[in-house]
Recover the amino acids of this structure.
């Protein structure tokens, strides 16, 4: 049974700029927004757009991601025909290879795509927070009679040089592609989301693979080759919320934006476009008699007896009496003991912050550091963690780390 | 946990004690009454069974079971979507010649063929008016060791006044027991009005499947209706019935007031932990976003599920999923079920709102500690 379009989701990125947060897990598995992981967004977008077949290309630290995806049931992707499939690199008769680049990752799975005999393939990236209707993107692609389309966002001109820039004519046909240009000719940034006609994609992947000098990358190789052959390439304008959460500060920022959907545009309270996730199964959260919660998002299993202000707490976080949490992203299972002060920081899963410890600080002047505590770290009583600290190992009571 | 498959079949009676909470079962049955912020009562007994390795569970429903079917679906959330066993909902026959069953005997008689076809050695029978994280393995262990024919779980507690009042009309019976030193039951009381602490049955029974089939066959031939009243109580000399004392946390729903109180009790961390810590309680997933507390809101001593938006002031409340409390609204000592909307400036106290109730802007609504006001599903105040 042929599918009109299937999705290939690039989830192999190491996310090295998230440092300690991605030490043991792939970037798409990084928790976000109180009860989600980053990959919930593209997966939910697929289901909400009617795409029922998704290949997830994994490579770096796939354990957490694999377990999280499971059979795909939370996203309604456990299907008789299609559904979600995790695709790690594998050994073939001719030998085995890690995925050398984004294009090579798809190339190595040509046979997977072929099984569904799709007309179109959408290439997604597993490290963006974005609610997008891919069916509208496909409608556009077909209307234009395109062979390749790329979703683009208008970005401020001064930032354009940080992105891959698409230059398009008045019909949105792309005339030029500039990778991180010094002098951008347009401010249409590529979101790294592509729709290909499958026959075209296959042809260029095979050609690219045969080129020993290629880096096997969509941006660096495949797209320039499409230009060389004057293929019909179009830019699809997207204007909703989109954020690449590749750095600690952008991840922190995006979480904070969830608290202000009226201005930021990232509304998780949308019944028509739900974001699905694997549920913690914990009971409701409890705010105790002395607990204070202001302008925050709290989810199942939390117990709050201290003060929580402008923060996001994931499942099962405990904030003991007298503890203070502000401008913080606190991931699942973390315990903040009484009297501890946790501010302007990201605390990963299952951390314990001892009594009267201080983690991070509200920004002063140019100092805007987001202190970050890695998974399973223990911060001793009275320890002090500076606003620029990146904590991977336990910190003993009373010690300081900056 | 290799020994996952208990050699036990579960049979639930989701309609039992419906008559105690007429308001709440208007459009549902006892088993599907929402409880504790994100659960339905049946979740507790189902999860308890599943956590004890009981994975072949039948529910014999009688009426108003649409909400239960909707809640349970394929049983996947309780890990009961199985090739062998799993979840099995048995609706009543809707034929003119077959009337709806009344007591447990008639209910079981209607599934005798099913019981004969199963392979499990034991059967656990359970009602669904009990909220507990129950260890069925302990019950079964004692049953096997004692050599009992039937073991019934009980708690030591006082019979609630509300139960006495309603049961006087003889709609749903409740049972208390006297036992010998070796825990063998020597007397079974029906609708006792005894004062003080008694051995109050939880109506969780364990019995060998073969014996159950035998007893039910005899009982239905003789025209018995009630398992306890007609089958057990008069024959305690022949049938060895033993008591199993349960010491864990129990919430027993015996009327609207006790429903309110038992919800409120969960605001005490001690109770919340006692109920939820022993093993996980599963429920239907709704994929709500986390609850959002907007600037200017205030929350104190509340148990809140996901998907709520709080702009007003909440205190001593249980909020189910998707509740909205508008700006300037004050909500105190309330149980607000799924998708209740309290509009801006409303002031409510001691109120139970059923699903999808709206309290419009500026309204004042007050029950009292001893008599909480109940607002039925979909109503707009």
């Amino acid at each position: 049974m042929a599918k009109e379009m299937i999705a290939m989701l690039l989830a192999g990125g190491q996310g090295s700029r998230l440092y300690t947060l991605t030490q043991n897990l792939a970037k798409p598995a990084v928790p976000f927004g109180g009860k989600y992981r980053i990959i919930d967004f593209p997966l939910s977008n697929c289901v909400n757009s009617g795409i029922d077949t998704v290949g997830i290309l994994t490579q770096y630290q796939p354990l957490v991601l694999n377990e999280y995806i499971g059979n795909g049931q939370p996203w309604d992707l456990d299907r008789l025909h299609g559904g979600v499939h995790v695709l790690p690199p594998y050994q073939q008769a001719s030998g085995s290879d890690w995925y050398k680049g984004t294009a090579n990752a798809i190339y190595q799975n040509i046979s997977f795509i072929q099984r569904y005999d799709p007309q179109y393939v959408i290439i997604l990236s597993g490290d963006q927070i974005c609610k997008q209707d891919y069916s509208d993107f496909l409608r556009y692609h077909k209307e234009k009679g395109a062979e390749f389309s790329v979703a683009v966002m208008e970005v401020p001109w001064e930032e354009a040089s940080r992105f891959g820039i698409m230059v398009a004519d008045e019909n949105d046909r792309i005339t030029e592609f500039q990778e991180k240009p010094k002098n951008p000719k347009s401010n249409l940034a590529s979101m790294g989301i592509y729709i290909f006609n499958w026959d075209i994609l296959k042809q260029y992947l095979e050609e690219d693979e045969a080129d020993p000098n290629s880096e096997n990358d969509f941006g660096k190789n495949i797209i320039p080759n499409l230009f060389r052959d004057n293929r019909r390439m179009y830019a699809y304008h997207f204007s909703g919320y989109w954020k690449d959460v590749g750095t600690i500060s952008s991840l922190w920022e995006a979480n904070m934006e969830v608290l202000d959907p009226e201005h930021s545009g990232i509304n998780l309270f949308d019944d028509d476009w739900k974001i699905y996730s694997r549920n913690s199964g914990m009971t409701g959260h409890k705010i105790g008699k002395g607990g204070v919660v202001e302008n925050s998002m709290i989810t199942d299993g939390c117990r709050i007896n201290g003060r929580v202000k402008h923060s996001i707490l994931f499942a099962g976080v405990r904030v003991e009496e007298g503890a203070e949490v502000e401008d913080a992203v606190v991931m699942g299972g973390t315990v903040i003991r009484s009297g501890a002060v946790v501010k302007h920081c990201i605390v990963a899963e299952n951390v314990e912050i001892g009594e009267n410890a201080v983690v991070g600080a509200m920004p002063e002047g140019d100092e805007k550091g987001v202190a970050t505590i890695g998974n399973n770290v223990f911060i001793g009583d009275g320890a002090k963690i500076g606003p620029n600290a990146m904590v991977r190992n336990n910190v003993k009571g009373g010690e300081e780390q900056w | 946990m290799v020994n996952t498959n208990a050699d036990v079949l579960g049979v639930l009676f989701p309609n039992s004690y419906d008559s105690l909470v007429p308001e709440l079962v208007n459009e549902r049955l006892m088993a599907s009454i929402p409880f504790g912020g994100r659960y339905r009562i049946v979740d507790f007994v189902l999860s308890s069974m599943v956590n004890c390795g009981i994975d072949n569970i039948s529910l014999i429903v009688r009426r108003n079971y649409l909400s239960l079917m909707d809640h349970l679906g394929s049983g996947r959330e309780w890990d009961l979507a199985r090739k062998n066993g799993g979840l099995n909902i048995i609706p009543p026959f809707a034929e003119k010649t077959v009337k709806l069953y009344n007591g447990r005997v008639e209910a079981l008689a209607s599934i005798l063929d099913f019981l004969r076809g199963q392979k499990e050695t034991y059967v656990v029978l359970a009602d669904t008016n009990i909220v507990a994280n129950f260890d069925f393995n302990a019950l079964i262990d004692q049953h096997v060791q004692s050599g009992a024919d039937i073991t019934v779980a009980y708690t030591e507690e006082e019979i609630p006044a509300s139960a006495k009042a309603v049961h006087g009309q003889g709609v749903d019976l409740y049972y208390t027991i006297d036992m010998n030193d070796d825990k063998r039951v020597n007397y079974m009381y029906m609708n006792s009005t005894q004062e003080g602490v008694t051995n109050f049955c939880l109506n969780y029974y364990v019995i060998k499947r073969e014996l159950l089939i035998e007893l039910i066959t005899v009982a239905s031939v003789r025209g018995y209706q009630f398992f306890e009243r007609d089958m057990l109580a008069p024959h305690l000399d022949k049938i060895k019935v033993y008591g199993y004392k349960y010491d864990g946390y129990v919430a027993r729903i015996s009327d609207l007031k006790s429903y309110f109180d038992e919800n409120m009790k969960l605001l005490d961390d001690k109770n919340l932990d006692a109920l939820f810590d022993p093993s996980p309680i599963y429920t239907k997933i709704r994929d709500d976003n986390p609850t959002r507390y907007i600037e200017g809101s205030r929350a104190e001593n509340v148990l809140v599920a996901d998907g709520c938006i709080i702009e007003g002031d909440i205190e001593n409340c249980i909020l189910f999923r998707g509740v909205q409390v508008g700006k300037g609204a004050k909500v105190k000592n309330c149980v607000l079920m799924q998708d209740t909307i309290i509009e801006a400036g409303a002031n409510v106290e001691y109120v139970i709102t059923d699903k999808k109730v709206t309290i419009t802007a500026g309204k004042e609504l007050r029950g009292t500690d001893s008599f909480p006001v109940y607002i039925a599903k979909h109503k707009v105040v």
Notes: Residues 186 and 236 of chain B are 6 Å apart (CA to CA). The mean pLDDT of chain B is 89. Chain B touches chain A through 36 residues (CB under 8 Å).
